[in-house]
Amino acid sequence: MSYKQGLNIFLCGLITIGIAACGGLSEEELVATAIVETRAAATPTPLPINLTITLQDDLGNPMPETRIKVKGKAQKTNADGLIQLADIDDSIQVEANQQGYELFDETFSLNQGENAITIQLERNPFGLLPTDACNTDETLLFIEDFEDRLAENFYGIDDGALDEYSIGVDGTGNVVMRVENINHEHTFYMDGQFENTILRFRIKFITESEVNFMLSWQASFEKFAQAQYTYIINTYEPIIAFRQDGREGSMKTDPMDTNASKMPSVGEWHLIEVGTFDGVNILYLDGELVTRFTDKDPLDPGSFGFGQFIYDTTPLTGLMYVDDFSICGLTTDIKPLDKASNTQ
Asked: What is the pTM for the complete model shown?
């Protein structure tokens, strides 16, 4: 058999669609038909699915170095507020749960090739933004506004161990911590020991009574011998401040000088700021200095706690709200928040 006859037989074997017989085709026709049939049978390679996510705040500004979840896995935006993903599935869930904003949780269907999604978060009107919690020369260490209806790392609240405390909604839709009734129970923050810091929170006395709010600062709750700076806040007398030391039954107190004209009022939000820096202890009420005390033997780093109490055994009930806790690290002297306000 000649070369030409062999080529004809080989090419005829390749061509199976649309040709009844090969005998009448020339060599050139057979080659051309084989090329066409081979190309038609080839499966094109699909394009990969790529995605660029742009994360923006409520004003349309990019949110750099911000963590979100993509299909349950943490991802972090770059300096331009972008996340770029390559060769992913055609359906993807994106969750952004940022402090001070409403929860974003949505599933997107993607096409082959390049995809782009812009996520603009919606501001929670009652959420505390990290940028509003500290001054520009301070470092945010802790923030809690209860908008997720949890009081994480506050003793006895989420698990219901303390009856006085609960997370609820006030009349405006704001989620707050409610402190009510008088069982002399105290909660405290369990996750951290703080030094050279300032604690900020808001308080609102709902009922008018001789109920006191006691704040413990730089406290060590794990030791039987407690040492702390104590502030007693109410609506019927000036704020009382003192350092507290000693064991149960032999407690020693050293009073601090206070501004006798400053006290909260009923039915209004007030901003409390209490800080310690290099032995100096300061408390501000709505941005105004209440007490300044220099401790020659400063306490060790500690946490904070609070609760209600009364001076005598007279049955009393009281209700107050607390909200928007933050702790900021200090590198210089204590000063009030630039945006100090009780208007929220």
From this structure: 0.79
